[in-house]
Amino acid sequence: MLHVIVSTLLLSLNLAFFTAAEGPCDIYGRYNTPCVAAHSMVRALYGNYNGPLYQVLRKDDNATLDIHVLSSGGFANSAAQDSFCSRSTCVVKIIYDQSPMQNHLEPAPAGGAVHHPDNPVTANRHRVTVGGHPVYAAYFEGGMGYRNDRTKGIATGNNPETLYMVTSGTHYNGGCCFDYGNAEVNNDDDGAGTMECVFWGNTTIWGRGQGSGPWVMADLENGLWAGNVRSNDKNLPIRTEYVTAMVKGGTNDATSGKLQLMYDGPRPNGYQPMRKQGAIILGIGGDNSDSSIGTFYEGVMTTGYSTDAADDAVQANIVAAGYGK
Fold it and tell me: Which entry of 161, 184, 253, 287 is annotated as an active-site residue?
């Protein structure tokens, strides 16, 4: 089964609903589909997480600094980054995995499509307010990407998983491929079913939704799927400032309450059973295709196929975090 969901984030919601006592990964854990990857530039994804979110590298002297949360379960300490990077450009060297699996992301190595390593994102390229706190996103401008080919706990073969990312609804293109999720461990195209990623953009090379996009689609390798056929008019374009994009393999406005189902049904022909390999990518395709642009705020991968109740609770938590407020 393939499940593609999208939601927008309505900016009128009250911040009082947000509590650091519980994050998205606490919710998924409570529903017995725990996080095996939890990446965020902006906030803790567990209520008790008090470690680093990402690491910046200062280009003039190659010094590094971990950017922690301000408090357990809280938001990124962007002031520490501002001070450290005041004299020189900084890039994001590591995006830390908050889950016990420690599946950290670093700039992607060469692959089958692009034969050189990808660049890291500029650390202060995109500043945003979340929950009243100034924070920075990972802002991809082409030729940039992150990867981990030696992961722990990520779904392989035909095992189920759920993955989501919160992204910008206004920063995208038709390049390949602004993905987050499960990919090949050898940085190459290993054929249909060897990936399972959530994609955001308006490329029409392999598949499309209604209109001109952008759409949330599933990248299953050798195809971006808006459903189980090349064109799915029920997968509607999303035009909003923030987007929660979700694939259950088994998408949403990141400021509104409910998730909107774009597709729920069988996988495309040739994609069952899946042959997932368990690497993690961000901002690129499985073979290191890196021509896409996009913005990454946070993302999660679970073990097991989450329930609709868990997804709705996670979406409510994302909304309550206060993107854009």
Answer: 287
